[in-house]
Structures are given as structure tokens and as C-alpha cells.
Amino acid sequence: MDIPDVSPPRPSHGEQYSESDREHEQIPDVDGDALDDDDPSDSLKDQLSHDPLDRDHDHDHDELDSLPHPSENQDDDDDDDVKVSLHIEVRLRSNSTILYDTVRQTIGRYITDNFTTLETHSFVPGWQAIKFLENEVYSVYCAESGQATRLASISKVKLNIHVYELPAEGQDKISMLCANPMDPSELGHEAEPEDETGDVAASRIELPANRCEGIWESLIYEEGLKTKLLNYIYSSIVFAEHDVNPNLISWHRLVLLHGPPGTGKTSLCKALAQKVSIRLSGIYQKTELVEINSHSLFSKWFSESGKLVQGLFSKIEQIAENRDVFVLVLIDEVESLAGSRSTGASGGEPSDALRAVNSLLTALDKLRHHKNVLVLTTSNLTDSIDEAFLDRADIKQFIGLPSAEAVYWILGSCLRELISRKIVKGDGGVLLDYKDAVLVRDSSDAVGGGNMSLELLKVAEAAKGLSGRFLRRLPLLGHAQTGSCSSVGGGGGVSCWLFFECLLSVVESEQVQ
Ligand SMILES: Nc1ncnc2c1ncn2[C@@H]1O[C@H](COP(=O)(O)OP(=O)(O)OP(=O)(O)O)[C@@H](O)[C@H]1O
Ligand SMILES: [Mg+2]
């Protein structure tokens, strides 16, 4: 597992640093995220870098700056073609009016002029010195590169700069989609939390959205897992954009993430959707996530599931008819909608359930003809999913319980958060990389600055086999066990040694349950 450093540099301007940044900063991404050397997005980006949509996108913004694009500075174009990509994500402030091209060019030039290497999975420091960006740009994040190492050498990569902005906090654009085909209402109406009409089968959210920001970085998996999924999406877009003959090469635009409960499947789908929306912002004017709760759809409309599935998907198809919109459909707990027909028949399931599966399969077969659609599904009961559905999934990715190393990183991110919030008192040292912590632990001279790391390692090894969901809850349970409620409203936080002791005790009791 390629473990990144957990302390990416902090943006130097305090006011540009928010809570979400803090989370962003402190949560490591242990996915090596080494993009394939032949990153399919490269050719796509190259091909589409002068796409008219891109210019349309910029219509909302000020005049185009005349700075050359960083790639235009490259002397050797051929050389540039074989370079791997380094993905830089520039988040604009929500009230920004600057042209995306201006940002791309300025940040590109800033990076090439000021850095020989950049650390992936960390914020790029110092851009605030460019005064005209200060009120326009919120953060500059160096995401993954095609190189296997954490440090990307700028002369060996091609910068892929993605500019995006989120709506103002609390202003994510969400609407509801009803399943009833007889409902004459438009495709989406404004979301109302108190909507009790009962006909809402899916929510529709415009991406990138605040609620999905930072999830990608918070999810920790074995090396390459997240990148593999992202690369699949890139490849499917490249194939679609090149109008590959579907009679010769066909795929269903369907991804299934399966595995035990609490391993981050739903979160990963949302994170992928957000990532895709950021990466496609120069290609599609809009990205939408249609989130279907198949279980509630099914139970609410039990007698008419087939028709309702059909109704819902025909509305999704209508959204996808707008070629400027990339549509991601998330079907969570898909087994409740795509339950095995053979089990259903033998188990005496009502024929309505069979009709629902048939409708879903038909709908998926129709949707696959839309090149701007991708269906993401999750399940922890693959055994009960219909075979025809499984066969349609281009990628069936098992998402397992976190390894000791992943547990170490997950808990490490929690610990940093609690220390920064002054709920736990750190020992003043830095947390070691997992491998270094293991080395120190195994060496005879295990003394010095690694103590907090060694305690964390002990907890991580004890917690192996527990779900990510439990791990994210564990710090709260551990803190409760310290009995330090008296520090509410004051005090400098509980000692980390007591905290570790309590974490271990909670983990041990969880393991025996
Ligand atoms: N590998 C992981 N790294 C970091 N956080 C994780 C990981 N796995 C799970 N989590 C956290 O656990 C919580 C639950 O995740 P999520 O709901 O996505 O799991 P799920 O696999 O969809 O569960 P279920 O099968 O029960 O629906 C989230 O807060 C997520 O961030
Ligand atoms: Mg889930």
C-alpha cells in the first residue's frame, strides 16, 4: 500500500481555511492513486480542451486573460504526449467571477514556475501570493498523478488542471424525482424536507455539491482501488466520445460495489460522482446525481413496482437527453430492486417483484445507449441479486473491511481531528507513517517520538476486521469511556494515553460481540 504523508501543507492564508479544509487536510488517502501510465483522460482532455462547452461555461465569467496555457509553454509536444497526468483541482469561491481558463493558465504557470516537485494528495501552497486570485480561488489541491510515488516531478508530468466551484454553503441544488408515470409534474421539483406526498422515488442533486466534498479523500482503501474505478469511468467516456461501435465493443455503464456493511460503498459512489463532476467540468456543462432509494421505492409502491421503475427511469432518460448534462444514477441497496428472479420464483415472491427486476433490466438496457450516463450501484447481498443484472455490471468491485494499515490511517485522521479540536491532548510529536510505526515497534530501540504512533498501531491491529463505519464512531465511544465529560466547556482535553487505553478497551469489547 502506497501510504501518503498525512500532513499536507496548510493553506497559508488563515481566512481561506475552513472546517472542510481541515478535514480535507487531515484525512490521508492511502489509495496510491497511481493512474495508469496511459491515462485515458489525457487524450480526452486534449481533444476536448477547446470544446465549445468549455467556453460556454466561461460565459458567466469575466474577460479571458491572455496568459498562455501552461501546456503551450512546453517546448516538446511529443514529449508532452507521453507524460503522465498530474491532476490539480482548483476550487473557486462560490461568488467567484473569474474565467476558468484564466485560473487554469495562472495556476499552471504558478506551478511550473515555482515547483520542481509537488506532493500528491495535498494542498498546493503559496498561490495566494497572486493577488488577483485571492478573492476568486478557495483552494488548490494536488490530487493523484500517473506516477507511483507520492512526489510528482513537474518536468515529468502533464498538468491537468480542473477548475470547479461549489454552491454557497447550504445551497446545494437538490430536487426530487417522483416515480409515478402518471404524475404530470415536471422532472424535478424543489426539494422540501417536509414533502410527504409519498411519490418521491429519487433525489436529484447537481454536482459538485458541498455535501459530497471531501468524501473521496476520507475514504481509505488498498492501493489503486479508487483510481481503478475512476479510470473505468474515464475509459468509458473516452470510448463514448470516440463513438466506438457498440456492436463491436459494448459495455453497460454499470458499476456494482459490493461487500460487507459499513465499508464505505455508498460513500464511495458519492465520492466518485463528485470526482467525475469535477473532472468533467470542462466537457459537460452540468453533472447530476440521481440517487434512488430502491428499497423505499419498492416498499412504497409494492403493487406497482414494475411500472414505477419504468416511470422513474424514463424520467432519468429524459434528463439524459440533454447532452450537456452528465448523469450519474446511484442505486443503493440494489438487491431490493434487482432481487434474483429464480429465488423469487421458488420462494413464492409476488410476480410484482419479477416485473420490477424486468423493468430495471429493460431500463438499464435503454440507458446504456446514452453516452452521458453512468449507473453506480451498491449491495451487501450479491448472492440474492439477479444474475442478468450481475452480468450487466461492467465492474463488480468487492469492497472489503479495512486492513490494519487502513485502520491505522482512518483512526489517525480521527485522532488529528480530536487533537486539533482540543478534545484530546497530543504528545507533541507527529504521527509516523504506518510502515515506520511498524518498524519502530519491531526494532529493539523503540524509543523516542513514535510513542503516540505505537499506541495507535496497537489499537489499529486490535481493530482489524471492524467496519469503517464502526471505526469512524470509535473515537466517540472511546472518549465517552474516558469519563471526561467534566471537560465540557473547558479544559485542554483528555490525555492521549488515557484515550488510547479507552479506544483499545472499546475495540476489545466490540471484537468479542
Ligand atoms: N474504508 C473506509 N475509509 C474511511 N471511512 C470509511 C471506510 N469505510 C467506511 N467508512 C465510513 O463509514 C461510514 C459508512 O459508510 P457507508 O454508508 O458508505 O457504508 P456502506 O458500505 O454503504 O454500508 P452499508 O452496506 O451498510 O450500506 C461512512 O462515514 C464512511 O466514511
Ligand atoms: Mg450503503
Polypeptide structure, described:
The protein has 513 residues and is an alpha/beta fold. It folds into 3 domains: 14-165, no CATH class; 174-398, P-loop containing nucleotide triphosphate hydrolases (Rossmann fold, 3-Layer(aba) Sandwich), CATH 3.40.50.300; 404-512, no CATH class. Helices cover 40% and strands 17% of the residues. It has 19 helices and 16 strands. It has helices spanning 19-26, 40-48, 52-57, 77-82, 100-114, 131-134, 215-218, 225-241, 265-279, 294-300, 305-320, 341-346, 351-367, 387-392, 404-420, 434-442, 451-462, 468-482, 496-512; strands at residues 84-92, 117-119, 122-123, 137-145, 151-153, 157-165, 174-178, 189-190, 200-207, 254-258, 286-293, 325-332, 373-379, 395-398, 424-425, 494-495. An 8-stranded mixed beta sheet has the order 8-7-9-11-12-13-10-14, sandwiched between helices. It has a 4-stranded mixed beta sheet with strand order 3-4-1-6. It has a two-stranded antiparallel sheet with strand order 2-5. Helix 11 runs parallel beside helix 13 (351-367), helix 15 (404-420) crosses helix 17 (451-462) and helix 15 crosses helix 18. The longest helix has 17 residues, at 225-241. Bound molecules: adenosine-5'-triphosphate and magnesium ion. Residues 265-266, 332, 378 line the site of magnesium ion (MG).
